[in-house]
Specification:
By secondary structure, this protein is α/β, with parallel strands linked by helices. Helix content is 42%, strand content 20%. It contains 14 helices and 16 strands. The protein has a 7-stranded parallel beta sheet, with helices on both faces. The protein has a 4-stranded parallel beta sheet with strand order 5-4-3-6, sandwiched between helices. Strand 12, helix 14 and strand 13 form a beta-alpha-beta unit. It is globular.
Length: 416
């Protein structure tokens, strides 16, 4: 089939899927969850093929981590599908309603977007997350998961489509264009009118390629140059634990911290944080004023540059800056932020509220790890991505963000 034919079939599937009731969609999702568990052994074997091929092709350590599936991750995927089952169906929600002076009854209700195209790389979890959220919100999905996860995604799609077949929903509600390679992805970007929105998930290069070349409307997601500002009043142990978690718990993801900014008077906290990061194997790109806070031995460090401040490392590296005020910290973040997640660690309510009010990001966090910016952690069941734009959707995108609205006007013969 051509990309145009795949898009046409997705459009045809979107109609009956959008009209399906919640019980029917939930039965299909339960079949997906059960299929994932039953296919765990085969999925791990297929994933191992992708990992071996990725290592041979020089796939980065961070992408290998995103690519990897094991029994625990497969169970987590199945559980996330079941969590979506438990969430309220967003389709048909009445967002507002009123009776106009002329007696017309006006309401605004949520309806599916229609057909969603998603382009991503080395992320088999996205295949399941997108399919689950799209199905529950009544949308058809056309997926381009990339060559790195080819074997894994092929089997995942088979599980999902078999669940649709078993439960009587349109099988073409979830399709892949992976066999068409990069040329297929480029062609998908031209299918305006067949695909309603494109969502890229991946690194800066992938996201910007889609944003700059697509004729289909794009929701920009994922790029995360994330900062943590450690205020002069921050508790040293709290700062140590939070920054260490934000950088090292999973450095390959977009909500991992990439820069830590210390107030010049936060020396006690800085010493705790830098010692913990160094012990955790993190390479430190350090402002000369922070050199005094480095541990006496064992630190892997060099002098920070503007390039470091602008880099989303995706590994065990972090930029370390020093500022003289919260205003300087906010200004630094404004220059380098990608609008994903920014955090402040402070014991000052005034400074916390100032940071919340003045920092422009999809998520602003006070005294907690940046790793909490996540659809699952926010109670969305899963996420389509984390939108860093300001139109339609911002932050973790769940089912509600996969709907648009329809105005309904009910009358009794009124004319204008």
């Amino acid at each position: 089939m051509s990309i145009a034919e795949i898009s046409r079939r997705a459009r045809e599937a979107a109609g009956p899927l959008g009209r399906a009731d919640r019980r029917h969609k939930d039965r299909a999702l339960q079949a997906v969850a059960e299929g994932l568990r039953e296919s765990a052994g085969s999925l791990i074997a297929a994933n191992e093929q992708d990992l071996v091929r990725g290592k041979e092709n020089g796939l980065s350590a961070s992408l290998q981590d995103r690519l990897r599936l094991d029994a625990a991750r497969i169970e987590s995927l199945a559980a996330s599908v079941e969590e979506v089952i438990g969430l309220t169906d967003p389709v048909g929600r009445v967002l507002q309603g009123r009776t106009l002076p002329n007696g017309l009854r006006l309401s605004q209700v949520a309806v599916p977007l229609g057909v969603i195209g998603v382009i991503y790389e080395a992320r088999p979890n996205v295949t399941v997350d997108i399919a689950a959220l799209a199905l529950k919100s009544g949308n058809a999905a056309v997926l381009r998961g990339g060559s790195a996860a080819q074997s894994t995604n092929e089997l995942l799609l088979s599980v999902i489509r078999e669940a649709l077949r078993e439960t009587g929903l349109p099988v073409d509600a979830v399709q892949t264009i992976d066999p068409y390679g990069r040329e297929g992805a480029t062609e998908l970007m031209t299918t305006r009118g067949s695909v309603d929105v494109l969502i890229p998930r991946g690194g800066r290069e992938l996201i910007q390629h889609v944003v700059n070349n697509s004729r289909v409307p794009v929701i920009e997601t994922g790029e995360g140059n994330v900062h943590i500002y450690v205020d002069a009043t921050a508790d040293p142990q709290l700062a140590r634990d939070i920054v260490h978690n934000a950088k090292t718990s999973r450095p390959s993801v977009c909500n991992a911290a990439e820069t830590v900014l210390f107030h010049a008077e936060a020396g006690r906290a800085a010493k705790e944080v830098l010692a913990a990061l160094s012990k955790g194997g993190v390479v430190l790109h350090v402002d000369p004023r922070a050199q005094q806070w480095l541990p006496a031995a064992g630190a892997q460090s060099d002098e920070v540059t503007e390039v470091h401040y602008g880099t989303e490392f995706h590994n065990l590296e972090i930029a370390v800056g020093v500022v003289d005020s919260i205003d300087e910290a906010i200004s630094h973040i404004g220059r380098h932020s990608t609008g994903h997640t920014e955090a402040i660690l402070t014991d000052s309510v005034v400074n916390a509220e100032k940071f919340i009010a003045e920092v422009d990001a999809a998520a602003v966090i006070v005294n907690a790890s940046t790793r909490f910016t996540d659809g699952g952690e926010f109670g969305l069941g899963a996420e389509v991505g984390i939108s860093t734009q300001k139109m339609h959707a911002r932050g973790p995108m769940g089912m509600a963000e996969l709907t648009t609205t329809k105005w309904i006007l009910r009358g009794e013969g009124q004319i204008r």
